[in-house]
Amino acid sequence: MSDSIGYMYVQVADKVEADIRAGRLPVGSRLPNERDMGSQYGVAHGTARRAVQELRDRGLVKTLPNKGTFVIKVPEK
What we know:
The chain is mainly alpha-helical. It has helices at 8-21, 34-41, 45-57, and strands at residues 61-64, 68-71. Helix 1 crosses helix 3 and helix 2 crosses helix 3 (45-57).
């Protein structure tokens, strides 16, 4: 991912947030499941899970049981 100092899950969440801002993940789009996200960003499954939680805490996504995690908001600039 990056050589910068910090928690890897925050770096993954920041990357997903950047994709949301850029329109690559528009409102209503479904995020990859945590295992696929881990593979996509080269992190462990648990790290991807924490990144998704961070995105929920930021109010950008919502997880629906048995459905997936969806973008619900584009962050303000």
